[in-house]
Write a structure and sequence with these properties.
The protein has seven helices and five strands. By secondary structure, it is an alpha+beta fold.
Length: 246
């Protein structure tokens, strides 16, 4: 996916997220975000959207600490929708190759179209799960979500120090989508990990729908989820999941 395709994906995610909030119980607990309710989740994501919009509009060279006021529950849904549209407009108008601050590997505007697409998609799952609503990522978004997670994970060590434990002695982890094209092989080495696309006989393999593989990598589904099947060294996969949490 390129910058504008990710903007299109974000537009769809924002629409689906807003639809899921119709008639929402704002006090419902969000099991995948410890100690949050739906109001806190939407407030958090809406604040990120507005923060990111300013960062991209200003092509910021360092992280801004600006915080945006949050509304009460009765005004949260329109506030969230408005902030998402502001972000989307700014991203589409921006030069994707302009250099700017980013915490990941890609120090350009296009980092943020990708990051906000997947931030929104994963938190849409959190909301849907809390509210008992259906959820699924499209195959292109789910595949890019896995790639983005693996691309940026090494940089996550700055705020998730357990990422430093993701090394090994040439063990491999294979993710295999069962409903779309998509295979990933993660190689654990003495100095960290690398990944590639393709098929490889591995130390452990996980098969399942591509959307659920993405949710597994983001820590939203457990390894024993009914849609996922594991072959090989279960302990290695559990080690990966425990230490890759961002």
């Amino acid at each position: 996916m390129d910058h504008l395709e990710r903007c299109d994906g974000l537009e769809a995610e924002l629409a689906d997220f807003s639809e899921s909030l119709v008639g929402a119980d704002w006090a419902a607990a969000v099991p995948t975000c410890d100690r949050w309710d739906v109001l806190k989740l939407v407030s958090h994501l809406g604040g990120i959207h507005r923060w990111c919009e300013v960062m991209v509009r200003e092509v910021a060279q360092e992280r801004s600490e600006v915080r945006h006021p949050k509304p009460e529950a009765n005004a949260m849904a329109p506030w969230f929708a408005e902030g998402g549209q502001l972000l989307l407009q700014t991203l589409r108008a921006a030069d994707p190759n302009a250099e700017m601050f980013a915490w990941g590997t890609d120090q350009h505007v296009k980092f943020w179209s990708r990051r906000q697409l997947h931030e929104t998609a994963v938190h849409r799952f959190d909301a849907a799960n809390a509210l008992g609503r259906p959820f699924e990522m499209t195959a292109p978004v789910a595949a890019d979500s896995i790639d983005e997670f693996l691309d940026n994970l090494p940089k996550g060590i700055h705020f998730a120090p357990n990422v430093g434990n993701l090394n090994g002695n040439d063990e491999t982890i294979h993710l295999h989508a069962t409903d779309a094209e998509g295979e990933w092989v993660i190689h654990l080495t003495n100095d960290g990990f690398r990944y590639e696309h393709g098929h490889h006989k591995s130390t452990v393999a996980v098969r399942g729908p591509i959307s659920d593989l993405a949710l597994l990598m983001w820590g939203r589904l457990a390894l024993d989820h009914e849609t996922l099947t594991t072959f090989g060294d279960d302990a290695l996969m559990q080690h990966w999941l425990a230490n890759s949490a961002l």
